TrEMBL record, chain A:
It comes from Rhodalgimonas zhirmunskyi. Residues 7-106 form the Acyl-CoA dehydrogenase/oxidase N-terminal domain. It comes from the Bacteria. The keyword DNA repair does not apply. PANTHER family: ACYL-COA DEHYDROGENASE, ACYL-COA DEHYDROGENASE FADE28. Belongs to the acyl-CoA dehydrogenase family. This is Acyl-CoA/acyl-ACP dehydrogenase.
TrEMBL record, chain B:
Residues 131-225 form the Acyl-CoA oxidase/dehydrogenase middle domain. GO terms for molecular function: flavin adenine dinucleotide binding; oxidoreductase activity, acting on the CH-CH group of donors. InterPro entries: Acyl-CoA_Oxase/DH_mid-dom, Acyl-CoA_Oxase/DH_mid-dom_sf, AcylCo_DH-like_C, AcylCo_DH/oxidase_C, AcylCoA_DH/ox_N, AcylCoA_DH/ox_N_sf, AcylCoA_DH/oxidase_NM_dom_sf, Mycobact_Acyl-CoA_DH. Its cofactor is FAD. GO terms for cellular component: plasma membrane. This is Acyl-CoA dehydrogenase family protein. Coiled coil: none annotated. It comes from Rhodalgimonas zhirmunskyi. PANTHER family: ACYL-COA DEHYDROGENASE, ACYL-COA DEHYDROGENASE FADE29. Belongs to the acyl-CoA dehydrogenase family.
Length: 373, 387
């Protein structure tokens, strides 16, 4: 495997991303979005498109920057630090990877950032693609989609949807699912807004006899999980990277507070009980950082371990982010509980990230199975 | 990976295939199979001796040391390839010793040319077995508090005092010890790093029986031990703390480690072996075991990442305390799970699970406790205030 440290190019990308985000998307920008009731700033996303971020996983022939999965992970780590809200993971990672593997012709508009994709998979309260029940009934040469999708990220802003639906078998079967790439405005799709705890764009969608043609099928009919697999792996690795960055972000804020806040006439960071907890958190973040880097490398190298490492990264990052935000709020004390302070934003996004694309148990089970447990 | 490394890989794989004695192939990596070398070493088999001699001839007992001292002159990347190929071939390590892990790196960094020429070839050849004399009854976590004295007697030092937790002192030929050469200086500035032959009159050792039943550690006593001055001190007199600190970093990486990478080490399932159905169905066992494997795999990658960092010239420095802390705590968790999974069977010493389980409890004490590691991280890495 390529080294787990940033290459020169990657270090430059990280520096550039950090500089850009610190200037144009600090946590205060997230707060502003929240206060103004928007999930993300379209102008910022447009900038990201111009910098090649939206096309990070799109080939140069389709107008992408084709920087790869580790680069996408680095961008996610940096965006996670400042809680930058954007459709990056949904569109630039999950959709781009899925559609690229399938040889779709929608890639160039993903790369410019004009087309926004959302992934509509979940139906229950837990991530479990094989339990998809939404029906895709054959109707001549076309299909009719009926059912409901829950918690669709970027669901209200996306103009296209990747929808997993059942063409045969029943909920729980790995086979019999088909992935569709359809326009979000298609007749019969109804949006039902959700006010999520992280103030980002998630929505419930209902489908009533929505038409999809054979051209809308991604990959093969009845083999939708296989078509979606590359995108899911990439999305899980990217989300893990975001959570890793989020952990580092709240840890840095907390460390700053430990060095500045005084009680009993001394800095609270001088108390050994807090020092050891901060040091433990540092260790957890370091270990998680390695898993995130390895997942990106494995995806870029097309390694047979890519799925395993994406799951490892997502499992680790989920737990580390939970620890980081809990320690963050606790070490801040009362101020950490206030809306005026940023710590709560990190906590809420960490909880959403913990569930989205598979929780700790889901991914730990994949790792454990690989180790013969 | 570069072509050079790939051709090196082919070359080394071929060499291992041609030289590894059949009797050693796939031999379990337990304490009994280790070749420590030394004046009094009795080889476990002809194969063990042949393997040591062949590896030494090829510079593979200390792959990264300069060839002039019997090392292999390999790069870090080549060493990693070598280790990969050794694992792949089921080859045991030809030689282990505190000389390889600790004294060698100290001499290469701080030693004079004479000291290197005197000691390094004996280490690479497995002729001299070294032990480490750091801790004392009153100097554990507070290591700089060592009281063993070396008095300047003109042409020699006169050493008096006691060391404790000296690993394999009863089997070692020589000791590298922290001794106080200036009693008036501040405690960190009066210590020297001294080399002493264990055969010198006045040096005695007494093994300490541990809770695991083994006695790898000793008390080592120095009573009017005469140490000729020539080449006795490594580095600058009274600045032995610098050498010790440098070595502690090495030791931490070693104890925390045990290799890196995705599939480093045996899986928990393998280490447990056959397990009762009741165990497999136990949700608490499953949860703990799954969490352990997640953390262990990520830690293996962290070992690899830190090696990559060191190789890329990015300093790892005090952050290596994190490896020591995390790796040893992980190992304790692992053996708790194994003991629980093996149930009553593991309570029989003969089962073999109990001794390693108990042994791991020392991992987070030796070479700096977990608490000292957390202190190092919080003060030196996170730079948290002292008041």
């Amino acid at each position: 495997m390529e080294k787990l440290v940033d290459t020169e190019d990657e270090a430059m990308l990280r520096d550039a991303a950090r500089g850009f985000l610190d200037n144009f998307s600090p946590v205060s920008a997230f707060r502003k979005n929240r206060d103004e009731g928007r999930a993300f700033d379209p102008a910022l996303w447009s900038e990201m498109g111009q910098m090649g971020w939206a096309g990070v996983l799109v080939g140069e022939g389709d107008g992408g920057s084709d920087m790869g999965h580790r680069a996408a992970g680095i961008l996610c780590e940096e965006m996670g630090r400042t809680l930058t809200a954007s459709p990056f993971i949904s569109s630039a990672v999950i959709a781009a990877t899925t559609l690229r593997a399938a040889g779709s012709d929608h890639l160039s508009s993903i790369a410019t950032g004009e087309t926004l994709y959302a992934l509509a998979v979940d139906e229950g309260s837990k991530f479990a693609p094989s339990r998809t029940a939404m029906e895709a009934r054959a109707d001549g040469n076309a299909f009719r989609l009926t059912g409901a999708k829950a918690f669709v990220a970027e669901g209200s802003t996306a103009n296209r949807l990747l929808v997993l639906a059942r063409t045969s078998g029943s909920a729980g079967d790995e086979q019999g699912l088909t992935l569709f790439d359809i326009d979000a405005s298609r007749a019969g799709i109804k949006q039902d807004s959700v006010e999520t705890i992280d103030y980002r764009d998630f929505i419930n969608l209902s489908f009533d006899n929505v038409e999809a043609t054979g051209d809308d099928v991604v990959g093969d009919v009845d083999n939708g999980l296989a078509a979606l697999a590359p995108g899911l792996r990439a999305g899980q690795a990217a989300l893990a990277a975001e959570l890793g960055g989020l952990s580092a972000g709240i840890a840095a804020i907390t460390l700053g507070y430990l060095k500045e806040r005084k009680q009993f006439g001394r800095h609270i960071g001088s108390f050994q009980v807090l020092q050891h907890r901060a040091a433990h958190l540092f260790a957890e973040i370091e270990v998680t950082t390695s898993a995130i880097a390895a997942a990106g490398r494995a995806l870029d190298e097309g390694s047979e371990n890519a799925a395993l490492l994406s799951s490892l990264a997502k499992a680790r990052a989920t737990q580390t982010a939970k620890l980081a935000v809990m320690e963050g709020v606790q070490m801040h004390g009362g101020i950490g509980m206030t809306d005026e302070y940023d710590a709560g934003f990190f906590m809420k996004r960490a909880r959403v990230g913990a569930e989205w694309l598979g929780d700790y148990g889901h991914h730990a089970a994949i790792v454990a199975a690989h180790r013969g447990l | 990976m570069s072509d050079n490394l790939e051709s090196f890989r082919a070359e080394i794989a071929e060499w291992i295939a041609a030289n590894l004695p059949a009797d050693l192939k796939g031999i379990p990596h337990d304490e009994d199979a280790i070749c420590w070398g030394g004046r009094n070493w009795v080889f476990k088999s002809d194969a063990q001796r042949d393997w040591l001699e062949r590896c030494h001839g090829r510079g593979l007992t200390c792959p990264r040391w300069p060839t002039e001292y019997g090392g292999g002159g390999l790069s870090r990347a080549q060493e990693k390839v070598l280790r990969d190929e050794m694992v792949k071939a089921g080859a045991p390590s030809p030689l282990e010793s505190f000389g390889i892990w600790m004294l060698g790196p100290a001499l290469l960094h701080f030693g004079t040319d004479e000291q290197k020429a005197t000691h390094l070839p004996d280490i690479t050849a497995g002729k001299i077995r070294w032990c480490q004399g750091y801790s004392e009854p009153g100097a554990g976590s507070d290591l700089a508090n060592v009281q063993t004295r070396a008095e300047d007697k003109g042409d020699h030092w006169l050493v008096n005092g006691q060391k404790i937790w000296t690993s394999y002192a009863d089997k070692a030929d020589k000791i590298f010890a922290l001794v106080r050469t200036d009693r008036d200086a501040p405690k960190h500035l009066g210590i020297s790093f001294m080399l002493i032959d264990m055969n010198t009159p006045g040096v005695t050792t007494k093994p300490i029986q541990l809770i695991s039943g083994a006695s790898p550690f000793c008390e080592t006593f120095f009573d009017d031990v005469v140490v000729p001055k020539e080449g006795a001190i490594v580095g600058t007199q009274n600045r032995g703390w610098d050498v010790a600190k440098y070595l502690l970093t090495h030791e931490r990486e070693m104890i925390g480690g045990g290799g890196g990478g995705l599939t480093a080490g045996s899986s928990l399932a393998e280490m447990i072996g056959t397990r009762d159905a009741l165990v497999s169905e136990d949700p608490i066992f499953r949860a703990e075991a799954m969490q352990l494997e997640v953390d262990a795999m990520a830690f293996g990658l962290t070992m690899e990442r830190y090696k990559d960092m060191a190789e890329s010239g990015q300093g790892v420095g005090d952050a290596s305390a994190m490896l020591k802390y995390y790796g040893t705590e992980l190992n304790k968790r692992r053996h708790e799970i194994i003991m629980s999974a093996r149930g009553l069977d593991a309570l029989d010493w003969d089962d073999g699970a109990a001794a390693p389980w108990l042994r791991t409890k020392a991992n987070s004490i030796e070479g700096g406790t977990s608490e000292v590691m957390l202190d190092i991280i919080s003060k030196r890495v996170l730079e948290l205030p002292s008041k």
